[in-house]
Specification:
It is a single chain. By secondary structure, the protein is mainly beta. The protein has one domain. The protein is 5% helix and 25% strand. The chain contains 1 helix and 8 strands. The strands form 4 sheets. It has a two-stranded antiparallel ribbon. A two-stranded antiparallel sheet has the order 2-7. It is elongated and about 55 Å long.
Length: 79
C-alpha cells in the first residue's frame, strides 16, 4: 500500500521556537483493527472500504486516517 495522504505544514510549525510545533515523529497512520480487513488478493491487511467496485461492503473508507499531533510549548511568550 502507498501512503498518498499528506499533511502540509508551514516552517513555523517545524521550528522549535514557536508556541505550537510538530515534527515527523508526531505523524502516524491510524489503523485500528476495525478499519482493516484481510486482503483478498495480496498478503496482509487492507482498509475496510465502503465499496468494492459497485458493491457496498459496509466498510468505512479506502484510506486510513492520518494523524498529526500538534504540541503546545509551555510558558511561551511571543515577541
Amino acid at each position: 500500500w502507498e501512503a498518498i495522504d499528506q499533511f502540509i505544514v508551514s516552517q513555523p510549525l517545524l521550528d522549535s521556537i514557536s508556541g505550537i510545533y510538530t515534527s515527523g515523529e508526531y505523524l502516524r497512520i491510524f489503523s485500528p483493527d476495525f478499519l482493516l480487513r484481510k486482503d483478498q488478493v495480496y498478503p496482509g491487511m487492507s482498509p475496510y472500504s465502503a465499496w468494492r467496485g459497485y458493491k457496498f461492503q459496509g466498510g468505512f473508507s479506502d484510506h486510513l486516517p492520518v494523524l498529526l499531533e500538534l504540541r503546545f510549548r509551555e510558558h511561551y511568550q511571543p515577541e
